[in-house]
Amino acid sequence: MRNQNIALGAAGLAAFLALGEAVPRLGLVSADYFPPSSRIAGALGDELGDGAFWSALGDTLTGWMIGLGIASAAAVLCGLLITVVPFLRRATASTIEFLRPIPSVALIPLAVLLYGSELRSVLLLVVYAAFWQVLVQVLYGVQDVDPVADETARSYGLGTWARIRHVMWPTALPYVMTGVRLAAAVALVLAITAELVIGAPGLGSLIAVAQASQAVPEMYALVTVTGVLGLLINLGARAVERRALAWHQSVRGEAVL
Fold this sequence. Notes:
The protein is mainly alpha-helical.
């Protein structure tokens, strides 16, 4: 089944590339605005041989990785603290519902005002966007704890830390991993968006420069790199999720299938 899915995915990609080659060559769209796949592939090859490209890729991955790490750690700690302390749960409910829907891109003027086009501007946007993805999942995960198991742990004299470690965390971990996987994709989007709009070093900045200089094949090549990067991040996050949850019923059932 897995090999069949891979084959179908490869066939779909080949058909997409063939369509991208044929449409501009048949004159259905102007090649000045949508170059054939072969020209984009050539531009991609040139980018891969350019040191500036790898430096920009490193800048994007640095902002993505640091921002995702900060957001995930902060969200897990805050989520556990909010659920363990009933007062905090009641006091922060309305604040969370107010802040969570605010689009991260709306904070771009604030980021520029505070940090200019530095890495810290990227981190501000990435952390804000990724934080809510993980926090909400942590809250849902802890709410899913079996009350009977929690009361049993209390009756055996387990303290708060022991209940978090042995009761809450195993229940919440699948939710946490889902949140981190979603946050990884969101963090990449915000990192590239910040580079594109603010001008911070990275792939987004290279895309903006290519667009401004009318280097259309190079622009599409860089956009393709961001898509491949997102795909690899998603696959990597799923692999980490399966490894971290190897004991969980959902992953064991998936392995059996």
